[in-house]
Amino acid sequence: MSNQVKKIVGWLSVLVLVALYIVSDSELMRPIANTRYRLNTMWASDKYRYGDLYGFSYLKQYKYPVNLVEGAGKDTGVRDCGVKRDINLYSICDSYLFSFVKGENDFCRVNKYVQIRSIDDGVLNVVLDKSKINVLLIESTERQIRNNLSDPGFLSEKLRADGGREMLVLNQHMTDITRVSFNRGINANLEFNLFDYKFLTPIKEFKAWFNRTVFNRVDGDVSVSSDGARLYYRPTTDTTDGSLSSFVTVSPASMDQNIGNLNAVATGFKRMGFDYIYFCGIPNPCTVYESGHRKYNEFLPRLQSGRHPDFQFVDVYSPFMSDHHVDRYERSDTHWNKAGFQSWLGIFNGVLDTIPGR
Amino acid sequence: MLFNSLEFLVFFIVITLSYFLLPPKLRAPLLLFASCYFYMAFVPVYIFILFFTIVVDYIAGILLENSTKNKKGILLCSLVVNIGFLCIFKYYNFFATNIDRGFTLFHWNVKLPLLAILLPVGLSFHTFQAMSYTIEVYRGHQKAERNFLIYALYVMFYPQLVAGPIERPQNLLHQFHSMPGIRFDRERVKSGLLRMGFGLFKKVVIADRLALFVDGTYESPHLQTGWALVIASFFYSFQIYCDFSGYSDIAIGAAKVMGIDLMENFRSPYLAKSIPEFWRRWHISLSTWFRDYLFIPLGGSRVTTQRLCFNLFVVFLISGFWHGANWTFLIWGFLHAVLMILSMLLGKRSSGGKKEDSTAMKVGKMIGVFLLINFTWIFFRAANIDHAKAILKSMVHFKLSGAPMVFNANELFFSGLLIAFLVAKEYAGKPLVLVSNRRFAFQLVLLVASCYLFGVFNYKKFIYFQF
Question: Between A7, A18, A215, which is nearest B411 by CB?
């Protein structure tokens, strides 16, 4: 190869790698990732096709097809609450609702449904229609509650009612150049672009099998249930680092602080003009399925038993625990399944149905 | 940007290819730009601190060379700026907390404010490297660098910016000046890449695997059995060695690919037969820094026994403190000072008419030294003194009940096998041999495949990044 050709090949390689680096930015990745998740060729990605916990661990025995979005909101069994649509429902939620709720038709009596995710870097500006009943639902999975409530401002600032247009305003903290240049998700995205192909999945599964069989070890973000039937997100089962765990003791002082902060958040929203405020903590899968095996820290029931004058709890903990043999969560994913969502929807629609009309 | 990340892999390939493809005179600017980017990938804003100290030391160097009267004052200014940043970012909270504790002894309820700041990555490393430049110029051993770009590169050269080796200006500056003349040398590139591959192997296969056991055990020493703690302390000795020497291997290898020679940082330290020998083999760039800029100016070893003891205590306590603002590091430094003094005193007594040790004696000495070093690492690794005490108590009483071990028998055996392989390789002392392209390719593929199959990829930071 002549020197000239070598130089051209060299510069081409540099350009390709720089391009790869730039498209590995989280924003630019989204369309690429969505396309590759939809494909079913050797270039497709298996990372989340079989659940996020499978994607962390690549344990073949937990390779269950997971479809968190499509079809979940259909056939939701919404009870007949009459034709009256007198409720405007707003929600601050996480992916448990965000990925599943299709719209106002999922809910009983609801005229309009607007949601913002608590992890979104923005604010939802609402215009409260006083001719309707304005309901706010704050939903959080158990593992996120303590983090979300550690600073009462975190949830309070997700939503405001200061007139103007009703819209979701997402902040753009960093300029594009800074974001692309010092992209925090770069390693995960590069891994996705370089090594996340269906034809490489068997190698990953072999490594996972080897570690599991020989060393009895799984990926650091994953743990296996006591009966071996499902995977959990490890921080929820951890016994040392407690902030997300179901099994690390929560002190009475910490409980009081969580309840106090939740009350402060609700009071703020009440003052904003909401007629009803509901808080719903969805149990960690391990809280439900490990109930006979490990000692639960009782975080949710203790939270729900606290004094809460400005809001009500939507209790899904008790029904989920009372028939904990029901499969309401995906076995290879951190989320619930269609059955779990529909159970929740049934419970919440029951709550909405009890709201007196205006 | 971690050496064990895909981001670094892409970065390294892009920079190295560009280095050889660009006109040679653009190599220094390219490397400086790359180094800035590398550093900013951690916390971008800290580049300003680094830039400020570079400007101060660059000017100080020129002033030191030009002036005849105020040399001491100029050097002092430069040292104050460098050590000042170190004190603010690394030691302020430690001192404030301990002063508060002191006040409470006198029932004074004074609370000094604490700083909620993140320690700039590699601060202790590049500060020491910058100080070695001004001291060498002050001593007249090094000419002041007039080319700002070259001087900035001396402080910021990305392979060794955040965790060493802490270089000397005499070794590095002239290499940067002659950089335009460096030609693509296939043998150097092959040898550099293999060194990087082996460094990565040490990090992800050995260190990060042992870290799973060590972290899990040291996190809650009160719950562990004595046996688990003995294994954890043994593993930690190899974890820290593989972690740090793995980093140095990648740094030295990456520089070598570009035709730059960095100093060696480790020479099989656990094969040392005495404590002084251990310090000639462990973190060589730091121990020689302390020797040249602290121990010898204090009088070195050609002084009275009392003075020698004092000198050693000063050097090792500061060395302990260099590692971190925690009493555990000070105790670690203190223990090493005691071991050094005992070993020097015993060495003086038994000197004269020395016979060559038998192999059994040599191995016995190696094991003895290793056990002593292993003991000192307990303080280095423990989160605080209470944890260190709990670990030692459980070990001495050989507590039998406790949490189940983090590893199963297979993984314990495999970890032991990896350690045995490492020790055997170091004992044999054979470098990775480069005979043919085919053999090189085979070795590299084998290393990469082993790293993938047996590696633990959790993007765990290198231990020495925190210093």
Answer: A215
pLDDT at residue B233 in the model: 94
Q: What is the pLDDT, as a whole number, of residue A72?
A: 47
Domains in chain A: boundaries: 39-178+196-358
HEC profile for B98-138?
HHHHHHHHCCCCCCCCCCCCCCCCCHHHHHHHHHHHHHHHH
pTM of the shown model: 0.84
Rg of chain A on CA atoms, in Å: 23
Tell me: do B193 and B176 sit in the same domain: no
Report pLDDT digits (tens) over B147-182: 999 999 999 999 999 887 999 999 999 999 998 889
Domain match, B236 and B144 both: no
Same domain for B75 and B220?
Answer: no
pLDDT digits (tens, 9 = 90+) for B15-35: 999 999 888 999 999 999 999
- Looking at the fold, whether B121 and B255 belong to one and the same domain comes out as no
Q: Is B371 on the interface with A (CB under 8 A)?
A: no
**Quick check: B407 and B232 in contact, CB under 8 A?**
no
ipTM above 0.95? no
B295: in domain:
no
Backbone phi, then psi, for B449, in 5-degree steps? -65, -40
What are φ and ψ of residue A134, in 5° steps? Answer: -95, 120
Mutation test of the interface with chain B: which of A15, A204, A217, choosing the one with the most B Cβ atoms within 10 A? Answer: A217
B24 touches chain A (CB under 8 A): no
d(CA A243, nearest CA chain B) in Å: 16
Give the tens place of pLDDT for each residue, B367-405: 999 999 999 999 999 988 989 998 998 888 887 777 788
- The DSSP 8-state label assigned to residue B424 in this structure reads H
Length in residues, chain A: 358
- Per-residue pLDDT of A239-268, as tens digits, reads 776 778 899 888 899 898 889 988 988 998
Spatial separation of the C-alpha atoms in residues A322 and A324, rounded to whole Å? 6
Do B408 and A182 count as a contact with CB atoms less than 8 A apart? no
Give yes or no for a contact between A106 and A73, defined as CB atoms under 8 angstroms apart.
yes
In angstroms, the CA A155 to CA A279 distance is 12
